[in-house]
Amino acid sequence: MSSVEKLYNKMLRILTNEDLWMNIGLGLVKIIAIIVLSTVFLKIVKLALHNVFKVRQKTSLRISERREATLLRLLDNVLTYVVYFVVIMMILDTVGIPVTTILAGAGIVGLAVGFGAQSLVKDIITGFFIIFEDQFSVGDYVRIGNFEGYVEEIGLRTTKIKSWTGEVHILPNGSINQVTNFSLNNSIAVVDVSIAYEGDIERTENIIRELLAELPAKYEDMVKAPELLGIQNFGQSEIVLRVTCETKPMRHWFIARALRKEIKLRLDEHGIEIPFPRLVLYNRQEEAEPVQKTMKSDA
């Protein structure tokens, strides 16, 4: 019998082996069952986790919304990684690959990689302390180094920051040395109002104070009524009055724009004009009265 015939007979015996096909079919069924059950388990646990956080919102044990969002997203990611790892190990065990040997080898390789991946370990440790100490959370507006924007995601290794123009900056946690968090406390809106030297300062201040007392009912982002501090500066052609208002975190820009609009409309109603730059020109060739010209700013 030739070698070709021997090989053919061997392959034929393998392909016609009922036990082999039974084992392959049983293995495929087990793998499909593992994937389906793990997917269902992952969805159920995530749903339960989200419900736990919803219940905490109604109890006295409730933590801040910003920290809840951060912890919830982090737990989702960790849970997903753990389930995927267990599924891979179960599938390898099903197909007959010794899992214990792989885990032992992975431990040795992990130890070797740990010495060469110190930056990765630093990122993970820093990420843990960022979350544990609640330095900033998802949704906070922060400044980290040269990057500024809203925190999109905090992981154990990286942090994602989205700027107001749409760019997403991905920063390794180990590189985060200083953080400025603008979302922890209330913000302050500051608005300067210019009044002409010829204007009635007392009357103008009374009109502005009357307006400021009405605004908290109109703008819910105001923590309390805006305050007119008084004269802030003497300009070249105007007196500058300063108005401040305590707002909810990161709402000071919106409230500042609203204050400028409301004050301008109210001053127009009472015939009080905001001054514009004036320039006085003298003609040396003619002995005449100074000619005063006015220039309106384009602003």
UniProtKB/TrEMBL annotation:
Pfam families this protein is in?
Answer: MS_channel_1st, MS_channel_2nd, MS_channel_3rd
Q: Name one GO molecular function term.
A: mechanosensitive monoatomic ion channel activity
Q: Which residues form the signal peptide?
A: none
State if NAD is listed as a keyword: no
Topology of this chain in the membrane: Multi-pass membrane protein
- Record lineage: Bacteria, Bacillati, Bacillota, Bacilli, Bacillales
Q: What name goes with this protein?
A: Small conductance mechanosensitive channel
**Mainly localized where?**
membrane
Q: Which domain of life is it from?
A: Bacteria
* Mechanosensitive ion channel MscS domain segment(s): 120-183
SUPFAM superfamilies in the record: Mechanosensitive channel protein MscS (YggB), C-terminal domain, Mechanosensitive channel protein MscS (YggB), transmembrane region, Sm-like ribonucleoproteins
**Mind listing the UniProt keywords for this protein, alphabetically?**
Cell membrane, Membrane, Transmembrane, Transmembrane helix
